[in-house]
Design goal:
Distance between the termini: 38 Å
Number of helices: 6
Strand content: 25-35%
Shape: globular
Order of helices and strands: HHHEEEHHEEEHEEEEEEEEEEE
Helix content: 10-25%
Structural class: alpha+beta
Amino acid sequence: MGVLKKFEQRLEGLVNGTFAKVFKSEVQPVEIAGALQRECDNNATIWNRDRTVVPNDFIVELSAPDYERLSPYSGQLGDELAGMVRDYAKQQRYTFMGPIKVNLEKAEDLDTGLYRVRSRTLASSSSQQASPAPAAPPGRPGHGAPGGHGYPPAPAGVPPMPSAPPPGARPGGYGYPQPAGQRPPATPPSGGRTRYWIEINGTRHQISRPTLVLGRSTDADVRIDDPGVSRRHCEIRTGTPSTIQDLGSTNGIVVDGQHTTRATLRDGSRIVVGSTTVIYRQAEG
């Protein structure tokens, strides 16, 4: 049974079905849970072969009416959502820098039924003292996956950003801006063989040929089960530099936040097809 289904079943029996009664608008607990899963996937940082770190501190912003209705149950709901994140991380073999926390906040700019998720990586003092974190690999900013239908960044007035991320934490999210001018190199250093792969929902797919077709068809090199993805949606070509080409899909592609039909790819580039985020990776060795 999937993590989201287990989470939904647990909520059904809580407080004699109270949660089933309070979630009457478009916002559903399983929808928020799915957004938290995507937040982990979109901000995962691979430190080494055995460790992938994801955010552990989450804020779910709700419209004023939704927040007022849910605030009496925010503690219990937050605990359940944190438990779901923990279960999902175990399934995907993700790790955390500190305890998992999920808090609800009111956002005046959201209409009823809409929500937004923000996240950051917070290291506990005990983990910092027990094991100094290795240096994080260069990466692109982790754009918090907005809940629902894609919202702009959080408005002014959100909690202040820390002066620097914890050791090894990924820049981005709502906690850590990327330093000016810091971008991954367009091509890997010379010498050695370059490896290419993509990551979808925490699963790695190696690119062993010069081209890789993504799509919903079983004939695609990597099949993406998403109704917003065309049968042959786009094609990745590895090289110097690597590129991505739309194959006449219905919904197009978004690369690093830009709608396009063709783009150059760098290590860490984010490709959105339908409602699925694909992370492009390349490394020497």
